TrEMBL record:
One of its GO terms (molecular function) is transmembrane transporter activity. PANTHER family: MAJOR FACILITATOR SUPERFAMILY, MULTIDRUG-EFFLUX TRANSPORTER RV1634-RELATED. It comes from the Bacteria. Its main location: membrane. Residues 456-475 are annotated as: Disordered. Pfam families: MFS_1. It is found in: Cell membrane. InterPro entries: MFS, MFS_dom, MFS_trans_sf. This is Predicted arabinose efflux permease, MFS family. Keywords: Membrane, Transmembrane, Transmembrane helix. The lineage of its organism: Bacteria, Bacillati, Actinomycetota, Actinomycetes, Micrococcales.
Length: 475
């Protein structure tokens, strides 16, 4: 059993060895519960949206029903990070959860597609606030040596909805109504808050943290609007759409310079490169995942259920990678774990791209993509752990926000670029369109290797915390 000393005495006490130990259980279970609900709603809405759009005669706003959620979440992430540092994560989690639940009710009762889009925006704002604040709760309540295990639990909270969500959604839509896809989740948000309440009560505010500046909010809104534009026009590449898309990308880059740690776009060593790893991973697998099911349907004759196997395989492999990193010893070099994960991901993604280019069998595409996300499972939670280790206590919220915002912005750009490539070729050369989208995904993924290779900071000289529980040689 690990040991540590109380800060005000020489008495040696036992350190907790499980994330379900008394005092830690509420943080672990509460965080997993909220993340599972966010994941379930994301997956359920994706499956139910064709039915929703038909019922509300809203195909013209189909993409915006997804884009509004992503765009609003960017604002929520920025505000949530700064608010958590200033006032503590408790009010942020509570406010975000209630906004998310309100969005579910608005969407579930929506008489028109416009109202449904409003509800989806509220869901994005609420989830953006809550997700960042959940990371701050983990940083405050879970010892460093147990955080990898918590991140494994959060990965599992995504996988279970990924496997059961589509079937559950189909049953609800078929036997009840699409409205219960939204309304049925809202009560469970309150239940998750009840499970989380003890951990939230024990969190602390950072009174010395700076207030959120109006300019920061303005850039967050600019980024959100740009994300919305790219989601609307990702595959529309005629006439003025080129100019509009170009302006949106420029605004995203400018927003990134102000919302992300200084030097992130230049992959400066330390925290900026860790944020760069997370951003590149997010942009890469989102760009690939958007078109792989369609490719399997068009080129291999897979049914929608069979094509969806690529998503299930990816979910299981991701959770497996996260499970492995969660069981590494506390002294494991987390920079090496992150680098190994992105190398596995990029190499296997490259092999998958070559398989698509060469017309290889669909089962091999699914297998290679699934195995590649094992690397994401290793690297993704490690970026969160390193961000916490590299952040002063008063800036954990802001830096966790930057981690999530960087991923959201890169995903928007990756999807936009892949959409342009797809739109240019799909009508006349569909195979070239799919090869092009995979090339975009592989290219963005390669940036994660470069960023991970630059992430390590020089080790401090002299006495430090190397003997403390959970602090390894890379801390």
């Amino acid at each position: 059993m690990a040991v540590s000393a109380r800060p005000d005495t020489d008495e040696v006490v036992a350190a907790p060895t499980s994330i379900f130990a008394p005092g830690l259980r509420s943080a672990s279970v509460g965080a997993a519960g909220l993340i599972a609900l966010f994941a379930l709603e994301y997956i359920a809405v994706t499956a139910a949206m064709p039915t929703v759009a038909t019922a509300l005669d809203g195909y013209a706003l189909y993409n915006l029903a997804f884009g509004a959620t992503v765009a609003a979440s960017v604002v929520g992430m920025v505000v949530g990070g700064w608010w958590s540092d200033r006032g503590g994560p408790r009010p942020v989690v509570v406010a975000g959860s209630f906004l998310f639940a309100a969005g579910l009710v608005v969407a579930g009762l929506a008489p028109t597609m416009e109202v449904l889009v409003l509800g989806r925006a509220l869901q994005g704002l609420g989830s953006g606030l809550s997700i960042v604040a959940v990371y701050v709760v983990i940083a405050q309540r879970i010892p460093d040596h147990l955080r990898p295990a918590v991140f494994s639990l959060l990965a599992a909270a995504w996988v279970v909805p990924g496997l059961a969500g589509p079937l559950l959604t189909g049953l609800v839509v078929e036997h009840l109504s699409w409205r219960w896809v939204f309304l049925g989740v809202a009560p469970f948000v309150l239940l998750s808050l009840l499970l989380f309440r003890r951990a939230l009560r024990a969190t602390e505010a950072g009174a010395e943290s700076p207030y959120l500046r109006p300019a920061t909010i303005a850039w967050a809104v600019a980024a959100a609007l740009s994300v919305g534009v790219l989601n609307l026009a990702g595959e529309r590449i005629e006439g003025v759409e080129w100019a509009v898309g170009g302006v949106a990308v420029v605004l995203l880059v400018m927003a990134g310079l102000r919302l992300l740690p200084s030097g992130t776009l230049l992959l400066r060593r330390g925290l900026p490169s860790v944020v760069g790893v997370r951003a590149a991973l997010g942009g890469s697998f989102v760009a690939a995942e958007a078109y792989l099911p369609l490719m399997l349907r068009d080129e291999h004759g897979y049914s929608p259920a069979q094509a969806g196997a690529v998503l299930a395989a990816a979910s299981v492999a991701w959770a497996s990678g996260s499970w492995v990193q969660g069981r590494l010893p506390a002294t494991a070099d987390r920079y090496r774990v992150m680098l190994l994960g992105v190398v596995v991901f990029t190499v296997l993604m490259s092999l998958m791209g070559l398989t698509v280019w060469g017309g290889g069998p669909g089962w091999l595409v699914i297998a290679l993509y699934g195995l590649s996300t094992f690397g994401v499972g290793l690297a993704y939670p490690t970026t969160t752990l390193l961000t916490m280790r590299l952040s002063p206590e008063a800036e954990i919220g802001r830096n966790s926000s930057a981690l999530a915002v960087g991923e959201a912005l890169s995903s928007a750009v990756g999807l936009a670029v892949a959409g342009v490539v797809f739109g240019l070729y799909y009508a006349t050369q569909p195979h070239a369109a799919f090869v092009g989208t995979m090339a975009v995904a592989v290219g963005v993924g390669a940036l994660s290797v470069l960023s991970a290779a630059r992430a390590r900071t020089p080790e401090p000289r002299g006495p430090g915390l190397r003997g403390a529980v959970g602090v390894g040689p890379d801390a």
